[in-house]
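Treating backbone geometry as a discrete language has practical consequences that deserve illustration. In the encoding step, the backbone of a single protein was reduced to a row of integers, each denoting a local shape. The amino acid sequence and the backbone structure tokens for this protein are reproduced below.
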Amino acid sequence: MILNSETATVIAEKLLQIKAIKLNVDNPFIWASGLRSPIYCDNRITLSFPELRTYIRQQLVKAVQEYFEGVDVIAGVATAGIPQGVLVAEALGLPFVYVRSSKKSHGLTNQIEGRLNSGQSVVVVEDLVSTGKSSLAAVDALREAGAYVKGMVAIFTYGLQVADDNFTGKDCKLVTLSDYNHLIELAVSGDYIPENNKYTLMEWRKNPQEWSTNFEK
């Protein structure tokens, strides 16, 4: 779910303006998974814009306060969720930890960095949700450490069905500041893309794997 439509529109427009989100249906981007996609999102860029960084922090804090009560700890997902999580934790006056994608191979072999006690209530902060796989791996690690994960807040989600299914399957509530639907509507109305690109962009979201495969043919 999104925090609210007004915030979703503001965030979508800002991400387009600073080119944190790029759209290209003719020359798709290649994700780390190898899939071709007409959209690429890098929310790390928002950290370089103080006013936007502050607005995002304020809205993430609002999401935590409105949807999750009795939070003991804020957790960021490495790596892009770490700075956002620190900003949220600082604003709320709460402890912060972050979760690696896997345990370190040396030292204390930690996967969770920081002080986390069993039984503490945690809200996870993420920058972007695609399939939800890596985000939910962090949730699993926190639960295995004895934490009670109340849910997750994120800047943006592609709104893929597989992500919805994954979050439902893990019984993890997800609240985002903006989403794909608001982005595409804003991209068309704001002349960031031609209107005839809208159909292709919406088709990609239905089945990214099939869209990628068909593009390569």
In short: Residues 100 and 106 are 13 Å apart (CA to CA). The radius of gyration is 17 Å.
